[in-house]
Structures are given as C-alpha cells and as structure tokens.
Design a protein that fits this description.
The chain is built from nine helices and 16 strands. With 455 residues, the protein is an alpha+beta fold.
Amino acid sequence: MVPSPALLDFTVRRCEPELVVPTKPTPHEFKLLSDLDDQEFLRFQIRVIQLYRCDPSMHRKDPVKVIREALAQALVFYYPFAGRLREGPGRKLILECTAEGVMFIEADADVALEQFGDALHPPFPCVDKLLYDVPGSGEILNCPLLLIQVTRLRCGGFIFALRLNHTMSDAIGIAQFMGAVGEMAQGKCAPSIPPVWHRELLNARNPPRVTCTHYLFDEVPDTNDYPLHNMVPCSFFFGSTQVNAIRRHVPSHLRQCSTFEIITACIWRCSTTALNPDIESQVRVIFPVNVRAKLSPPLPTGYYGNAIVFVVAITTAGKLCQNPFGYALELVKTAKNNVTVEYVWSYTDLAVIKDKRDFNRVRCYFPTDVTCVGFEEVDFGWGKAVYGGPAKLWNEPNSKLTGHNTSFGNGSGKNVIVSILLPNEAREIFMKELDGMLKGHAMGGPSSSPIKSSM
C-alpha cells in the first residue's frame, strides 16, 4: 500500500494559455471526417497523462520549451489538429484546416514525482491541476482540438497532459501524434511514420446495408436492478501470477485466449455478481476492437483517425454468474473474433443508418485496454514515461460501469492494472468474488489486492 490520494497536496502555478501554431504555412481546406469518426458517442474529450522522471543528462533543457517547439514542428505534418470542427447538413462533422493552433499551457508544481507513489494508474484525482480545463475551450465545435499542459516538477521531472476531441482520433492515433512530437523534440526533421488522413476509407457503403448482427443500439429496458450510483474508483493488479491463476479456470478449447479476454471476462462476471441484478435481466459487455489490420487491404500505416468498432457480448445475469468461468470467457472471445471485414462494413453502415444515435448502456460493463497502444513509449528526450495512458475513468453524465486496463512496471511479462468504477455498496462483494477466482474454488495463487495511489 502507498499513501492515499488525500495525503498528497500540492500547488500548480500556470501561465496563461497560448495557441501553438505550425511553424510553416499549411493548407487552408475542408476535410470530412469518416463515418466511424462521426459517431454521437465519440463527441467528447479524452484525457491522457504522461509522467517523466528527471534525466541528469537533460539538466540544461527545459521540457516546456522543448515540447512547445516540437509541437509546432509536428503540426506542420499533422496540420488538421490545428484546425477547428464545424457542423454541416445533417450534423455531419467537417474539419476546417485554419492553422489557428492547439492550446498549450506552461506550468510548475511544488511536488516531486516520487511523492505520487509507485502504483500509477487512473483515476488521477489531481488531473484538474495538471490539465487545466480552460473555460470555453472544451466544446466539440469551433474550439481547439487539442489542449496540452506541460508541468515541471520540483525533482526535475515533468508531466505531459493532453486533452483530445475524440472524434479526431482513437488512442492509437493520438499516441502516433504524441510519438511524432517526441521525435521532433529529439531533433528529427519529420515523423518516422508519415500521417495519413484518408478518412474516406472508413465511410459507409452506398447504399448502406447491415449484414451482421450488432447489439450496440438495441433497446434494453432499464429495470433499475443494476444500481450505478455512489460510484467509487477501485484498481487491481494483474500480473502473470494472477492471470495464470484465472487461466486454471479455462477449459481446454479456450486455452488460446488473450490476457484482455481473460481479465474482461473475470471483471464482467465478478461485477455482475456484486451488483446482483435479477437473474433473467440481460447483461452486456461492450468493448472496442482495432480494425486497422482486419480490413482487406489493411488501413495504411500512419492512419490516425478512429479505426475501432464496438462489439457486444450478451447473456442473462443468471447464466453469466451461475455457469463456469469458461462461459463468460467464450462470450467475450466470440464477440471479439466476430470482427471480420464484412463485420466492419456492416457496423459502419449501421452507424450511418442509426444517424448519430448513442448506444444503450443499461446493465453494461465497458472496458478499454491501452496496454498495447504505446503511450508509455513516447519519449521527448527524457526517456520513456513512468506512466502513460488515461488520466481519469470515464465518468460522464450517463452512469456506466467502466474500466481501463493500463500497463504497469517494466519487469518481465505483461503486468496490467485494471481501474474500474464500482458502486460503493458493491465494492466489498466484488473484491470477495475476485479473491475467490484467484485463490478459491480449487485455484491457488495470491490475491489481486486493491491498489491505492498518491495520485
């Protein structure tokens, strides 16, 4: 255990926000977003945070100055980020490349990186200090598409925090841009991966036609038996010991399953048991799948738009909780494996047919996994990030059971921290169920203990 968030208090002194523009002239033009970009439930801001240690070899370098200059250089290549979104007929999103720039904040904090503790994971309660929400800057239309704050720390390290209009990019896309800024910061003249716009590659067919089964927009009645209020953050560590312990529950025909599939099925099952809905109630897990390599031909390397579709595994609460673990795992694995080329086009066509409709979140677990995105690989010259990934859990006005899987540590094997929002009254039951999965029911191994962080 490390100190609780309440024990860490510090002051951040910010300079006035400024606009960073490309260092060279860029085209003034209008660009359409793809039909996958232009989905109603992507019209929100996502927040990413990167923490960096002090590097004695960089002691004469100012991270704020280095990153500000690198950002301006990278915007020459990624000039759409310096523009503004407009809305056309039918609420279609249109990007005007105006070169107005992205918002940038210089800041200093009277705190050292070591004070944040070792177990760095979302949610970061201090994110409002480290990523100031400039009033009037966070709308989807007619506002900066990126807001970046670089905060120097007392120890010589720094924190890079970013807010992104999600309609512009998915996690892989924004990590690619951040990597380009890192390359510029280290003296490169151009990104090693040239950015690719070509959003028309992910537009619906004409006419659109739904050829696969999709549950994303299904009407699910809310029977109020799945209470999502008084939500509290909980984080759990899954190293090789914990994952292998769960694998002992896996039947032989499902042995070839990923860590994500195992953890997702486990959390879905344990959280459903903890929330205790009616056994006949429909419960779902919804998660995104990257389709860059699933298309034929694959999307070109460097594509930085939203290239994800959402899949749904569906069952009743009784079947999920009363069947062996392999039942939940097979549902998750099958939903993921259903993403074929035809599934992607069918999904895209359905998104257009539904015409900006949001999806149903009733009795739904919504996990995302950024362990393979590469946030922690972004290097501005001070080495890789100690932590790189989401800054907070998705806690929008629509209550939902949501979680983030992030990487942890630099040791051998893949260590994952799962950060999840749970109703306070269900937390103890959830922990008991998870503990039983790991060391009970004829299954040995240490518990996946809850983690606290000074963040």
